[in-house]
Write a structure and sequence with these properties.
With 112 residues, this protein is mainly beta. It contains no helices and 11 strands.
Length: 112
């Protein structure tokens, strides 16, 4: 059973950058496509980015395309979300996802 633990959230000014990490435990991590979702206060959870099991294909929500980059490191059992040019609309709890498995989330706050 895969377990996911996110880290890297925090407070950043508009225009700044953060890198989120999602550390996975479990023997089958490398077989899963991995995704990031986010949920802003008072809003539904929304898709942000995903990466296939090889790391060769990535997909992004239009709202983050060109600013965010998802990568994975099989040796470290970790998925990353590099977030650049952050704006206040990116403020949310960010969740790592592998199929039906979710992490606990990490809060990103972007101040104007």
């Amino acid at each position: 059973q895969v377990q996911l633990v996110e880290s890297g959230g925090g407070l950043v000014q508009a225009g700044g950058s953060l890198r989120l990490s999602c550390a996975a435990s479990g023997p089958t991590f490398n077989r899963y496509p991995m995704s990031w979702f986010r949920q802003a206060p008072g809003k539904e959870r929304e898709f942000v980015a995903s990466i296939n099991w090889t790391g060769g294909s990535t997909y992004y929500a239009d709202s983050v395309k060109g600013r965010f980059t998802i990568t994975r490191d099989h040796a470290k059992n970790t998925v990353y979300l590099q977030m650049n040019s952050l704006n206040p609309e990116d403020t949310a709890v960010y969740y790592c996802n592998a199929g039906e498995i979710w992490g606990q989330g990490t809060l990103v706050t972007v101040s104007s």
